[in-house]
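FORM 12-B: Structure-to-Sequence Request
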């Protein structure tokens, strides 16, 4: 927690022998900032009874620029609603400009209630609908993602074991992406950012498929990936943990572009990668060329 301000009337009930029986908060005013969550606020009233594992609340407030309400009681049913939360915020891999809304219901003992509900994302890059189910501390999210703009296709995702502070989540991502006549089959799973599996793409004009292979976690704890494009070259790169879910990027690619233009001879260029994933650095390539003959497809 980076900052926290609490106001209101707090009334505690209990005995020295029996401990806390009830905690009542009236005219509550709670404001704070938490690293990955951002600024938040809650106003209203709440009551907690640890012996009965019961919690009741009538709260409203904000999460960044979104609206939040928490109303009801446990174990019967506590509703948590988030509306119009911006998806474009500092420190996250942007889903595009748009809004996120969620409607969740908690039931059962306050210590670890069951949760069920839905999450909707609507942006210029993505439309997604997700369901959430399970115990609050181990809930599973299943989502259907539909890219927008130039991208088509459908991706499906399953996520569990979410840890916001560590930027870690166990996930499976599979489905198909298209762009024009290009098509990519996605099948990845593991603990982000060290995923295993493949993304296999067929791109018009390229003689070989482009294959991204995830090799899981390497000895340095980073995610290890291999990119192969057949005669056009390939390389390896690593995704490491950084702030939130945006990883660091490092590695190198070696490209041999002559087959694209029916060139003969030898020409290669090595690109070094290194920066946060949200703004990768692409230094000028350092070509290493031997004797070569250039056969231009536009030759007259």
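FORM 12-B RESPONSE
SEQUENCE OUT:
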């Amino acid at each position: 927690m980076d900052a926290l301000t609490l106001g209101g009337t707090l009334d505690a009930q209990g005995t020295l022998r029996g401990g806390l029986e009830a905690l009542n908060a009236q005219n509550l005013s709670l404001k704070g900032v938490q690293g990955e969550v951002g600024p938040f606020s809650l106003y209203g009233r709440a009551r907690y009874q640890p012996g009965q594992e019961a919690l009741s609340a009538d709260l409203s407030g904000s999460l960044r620029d979104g609206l939040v309400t928490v109303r009801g009681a446990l174990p019967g049913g506590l509703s948590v609603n988030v509306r119009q939360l911006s998806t474009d915020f500092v420190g996250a891999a942007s889903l595009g400009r748009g809004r996120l809304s969620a409607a969740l219901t908690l039931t059962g003992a306050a210590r670890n209630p069951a949760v069920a509900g839905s999450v909707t994302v609507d942006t210029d890059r993505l439309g997604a609908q997700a369901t959430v189910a399970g115990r609050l501390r181990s809930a599973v999210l299943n989502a259907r993602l539909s890219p927008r703009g130039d991208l088509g296709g459908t991706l499906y995702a399953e996520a569990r074991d979410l840890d916001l502070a560590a930027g870690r989540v166990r996930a499976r991502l599979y489905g198909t992406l298209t762009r024009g006549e290009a098509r990519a089959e996605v099948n990845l799973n593991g603990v982000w950012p060290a995923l295993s599996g493949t993304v296999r793409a067929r791109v018009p004009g390229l003689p070989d498929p482009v294959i991204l292979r995830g090799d899981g976690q390497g000895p340095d704890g980073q995610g290890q990936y291999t990119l192969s494009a057949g005669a056009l070259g390939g390389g390896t790169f690593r995704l490491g943990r950084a702030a939130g879910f945006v990883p660091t990027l490092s590695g190198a690619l070696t490209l041999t572009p002559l087959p694209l233009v029916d060139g003969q001879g030898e020409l290669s260029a090595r690109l070094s990668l290194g920066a946060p994933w949200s703004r990768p650095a692409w230094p000028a390539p350092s070509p290493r060329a031997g004797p070569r003959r250039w056969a231009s497809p536009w030759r007259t």
